[in-house]
Amino acid sequence: MNKWAVIGLGFISPRHLKAIKWIGDEILIGFDKETEWEQMIEGNLWKKVTHVAICTPNFLHYRMCEAMKDKVVLCEKPLTLTSEEALKLPDNVFTVLQLRHNKEIVALKSKLDAEPEGTKHSGKMTVIVKRDKEYWKGWKGDESKSGGILFNLGIHYFDLLIHLFGDKYKIKKSDQLFSIKNCFLPDPPLTIASGTIDFDGNIFDYHLAIRDTDDQQDRRLEIDGKEISLSKKDNLSFEDLHKDVYMNLKHGVGVKPQEAAKSIRLIEKLR
Question: In the prediction, which pLDDT does 23 show?
Answer without folding.
Answer: 97
